[in-house]
């Protein structure tokens, strides 16, 4: 039985996960990481390739050790989208930034003044909010020496493969989030590169499909990681797209929701959809011949982690001392709070607006001084409910593009491990929610890419048939539909003026895209 290694570089952590060819998780190891801001460069979020590679190496060694030293037969990597690595002409790493790096404010505004954003969005499905063009122009203007040495650009999942020994290459599902690909051809767009004033060499990295063979583990990488030299490396892809494979969402109309640091909602299309409002992001699926409309709830998992660590340190400690997951304990406590959280309205992520992407200052509105109605666990439940409400608002925006309301959805990621949060999502959407057996869906998708490349599976669908299973279905409670709709309307009414306060500078936005 083959052993497949998935390497996952997420926003808040990295993981190494081992699977057998039946999709059974054999071992997992992870490390949390953070991305530093450069003093004097507002919005910057550097990705430290040396320090973070060391963490990935630790994960590989630990996971293989947990699995009893099993020999790995194939490897594929996945990562947060938008994060880029710039290389020199000898393949050396020159510069890297994480996904929500927002330093390129002046460059975005300059490109917008030239009327280019609608052109870029129409061709690539991406705006300048997280695109590579403004960031590369920032380098050109602020570090011309480094820019002059730059030869190519790729994504973090590609960077992992190159660190292991593969030559530089880019996959569509992740590379497309740079905003420099053509949705129709599924290749680099020379026209967009030229329009932005970027060197054509940036598009020299060859484009590969997920599952393509891209290289082998080098002797140097083998010595560091403990992997065998010559182990084949296969192209992975973007986290949400490989997550869609990992939950079996590969057909037009399928809906997948990933609950991690960010919450992504992916709706599949058989041809590139369009959104004249520019609010919805259009991506390549990792499966050839499929595209995805994507919306995002910003920092949902991060906000819950903040509450766990900053507001519930005693609960966290007691749970860990007792051998329990702190989130499970918090969910049990929150289940006793009435639906609606006694009117508390969290202000965190806005609904998706890709062309004007920013979020109000984080906070809670409509607090009560009655401790029976408003305590810390009330705020925790309100945060869970708010995430589900924003998911609903996002899917409503996708439906407004012309597709039908989903008949069901799949929920994966850390949020799917509990009982309360999946139920809240089902109630808010009014549809059944399927929970996969393998919660590390993105990693499973990467393992499937490795297995397809190795020839274990003849196709993605054949791989899904062998590896993807569901542990339960969470049915919505119809009697709560009107309650969640009322909560969404109240949240929307309250959020709008909070957003204006952030726009005016009276409060500090949780996050805003460069140029907003």
Draw up the topology in text.
Elements: E1 3-9, E2 13-20, E3 25-32, H1 49-66, E4 74-79, E5 84-88, E6 93-97, H2 105-113, H3 117-124, H4 132-142, H5 144-149, E7 150-155, H6 156-164, E8 170-171, H7 172-175, E9 181-182, E10 187-188, H8 190-196, E11 207-208, E12 213-216, H9 219-225, E13 232-238, H10 239-246, E14 255-259, E15 263-269, E16 281-284, E17 291-297, H11 300-311, H12 313-321, H13 326-334, E18 345-347, E19 358-359, E20 363-365, H14 376-399, E21 409-412, H15 420-429, E22 433-436, H16 441-454, H17 460-467, E23 470-474, H18 481-504, E24 511-512
Parallel strand pairs: 1-4, 4-13, 8-11, 14-21, 21-22
Antiparallel strand pairs: 1-2, 2-3, 5-6, 5-7, 9-10, 12-13, 14-15, 15-17, 16-17, 18-20, 19-24, 22-23
Helix pairs in contact: 2-4, 10-16, 11-12, 11-14, 12-13, 13-14, 14-15, 14-18, 16-17
Provide an overview of this structure.
The protein is α+β, with helices and mostly antiparallel strands and 516 residues long. It has a 7-stranded mixed sheet with strand order 16-17-15-14-21-22-23, with helices on both faces. Strands 3-2-1-4-13-12 form a 6-stranded mixed sheet, with helices on both faces. Strands 6-5-7 form a 3-stranded antiparallel sheet. It has a domain of 245 residues: Nucleotidyltransferase, domain 5, CATH 3.30.420.40. A hairpin with a 4-residue loop joins strand 2 and strand 3. It is globular, with a radius of gyration of 22 Å. The chain contains 18 helices and 24 strands. Helix 11 runs antiparallel to helix 14.
Strand order in the largest sheet: 16-17-15-14-21-22-23
What is the CATH superfamily label of the domain at 3-247? ATPase, nucleotide binding domain
Largest sheet: 7 strands, mixed
The strand count comes to 24
Low-confidence stretches: none
